[in-house]
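Listing 4. Sequential folding, example run.
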Amino acid sequence: MVFLLEDNTYLHLAFVTGHNSKKAMLKCVGYDVRLYERDERLIHTVIIYTADVKEKPNPLNIGTLTYDPNVLLMADYNGNNTFTELENKIKAGQELSDADILKFVLLPLMNHTLPPYELASSTIELAKTIPDPTKREACVAATFAFASKHLDETDREKLMGVIKVIICVSLKPI
């Protein structure tokens, strides 16, 4: 994902599962080079590794070019605590901040004790209790998008069923 920032530079977010860091780095540097070649804007790259990656990968060094993007290891984030914090905030009727929404979005990638399908399903169930419909829909969609990348086809279908139930329940006759 690439965002144009206020200072006219790009923020390139890459999400990586597994720990083939060399392949991930090559893919990202290639993308950054093509983006720079096209627009000649500075690029700030952040590679977000899922919880299965426990150590920061080494920078890519191919001689005259060294590629050392910012790295965010989701293994460093306790998904159990984050889920509980979000749940408590929603139950207390507190407004979710932008940082809270980001936590929701990244929750499926964090270190967690639940199996991936249960985590995704529980997160979607929690998201459907968010009073603000825009934030609710964003959290449901983002949770599904991120979680589905890590689920097998059977679990993706089950998760889609959870979302369909939410959609059907939220629709009201005219």
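-- end of first protein; second protein begins --
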Amino acid sequence: MTNKTILVIGGTGMLGKPVAQQLKADGFNVRLLARNPEKAQKLLGAGYEIFKGEVDNAAALRTALTGVDGVHISLKGGPTAADFERMDHLAVRDIAQIAQEKNVGRVTLISAYAVSTEKADTPESRAKFKGEQALKASGVPYTIFRCSWFMETLPMFVQGKNISLIGNQIHPLHWIAAEDYARMVSKSYQTEETLNRELYIFGPEAFTMGEAMKIYADHAGVKVAPMSTRMLAVLGTLTFNAEWKSMAVLMKHYENWGEDGSPDEANHLLGAPRVTLGEWIKTTLDKSIN
């Protein structure tokens, strides 16, 4: 049992929620910043301290950051360039600066493997890169998690009886389960060796996006339906769908960039991910049936 309090910002999201739950299971006091505390309480259940506020409200951030030992940032920007900038850069910058003022022990941040100067070729990757740089420049101790693709994203590509394979995705990817990632984040708060490091979080197996979608499709009873990034962008423009246009840009980005970096340091410090894609699919589909 620990007396440490960790604030999770974005703790009701697909990747923030499992981190909040794992921290709580490991004995941390977990605080959340949420726009709708009642909704957050209903989603997560009892045992969490929930503060009302948004990330662009400095007063709310200062209140939520008072008296915490660490802050985990799990924000999702988009689909517009302005919103990526607001969430992935400016919010991270503000949180880091206030954390430094409050003498918070560390800030942890979820990022992506394709974030660097040379790979900052989209609004999202540029904002994430600037967010990382702002966190480092703040002076607060940090850990950045550069994650590969999450298994949990696969169902998001399903439309009806098809799963959309967007673009020419040739790069092998080490798919990671959110539960493994959450365990690693929580473990990082239990060792000083992870301070001021960028850690690559890669799952135990590598599949191209097409291969992963085929495995998912075979289990879920859907069909892989290829679509070019150009076609998705055109459809997004014709239907005024900002999400589709943003997705086309994202998937074009990942056509160009495969994984780099090594997961060895993260696996040594935090324990290697264990959940395979097949195991995750079976567990997920069993839950949906039951």
